[in-house]
Amino acid sequence: MVFSWLHLAIILFLVLGALFAGGPLALASLLAPKAKGGDMGMPYECGIVPLGNARGRFGVNYYVYALIFLAFDVDVLYLFPVATQYRWTVGWDAFFEILIFLFFLGLAVVYFWAKGVFTWPRKIRL
Prior knowledge:
Layout: H1 5-31, H2 60-77, H3 79-85, H4 93-115
């Protein structure tokens, strides 16, 4: 195999890329403060001393609400491009398609409501 300028350029770019990626990491580990105690171990909450257990777990209800919000948020996001293109449609086809979409979106809200997803359980104190 003959070593050419192309091989040298590839090796040079690989070395420079590794230095570009690893250089800041190495410099940060060398120049960063080494103190471990005191305020360094505390979680940062906008300069305010945290109250209680800052690493406490959230109830599963928060995650359920977040997932439902994301699902409905994405569904409503589909309405924006439809609303911008609605004025150029001809006939009632687009209106009925939007109506069907909104019907199923409302049906999902009714289903979640019937399942009791929107009722917030009271926390039981022992």
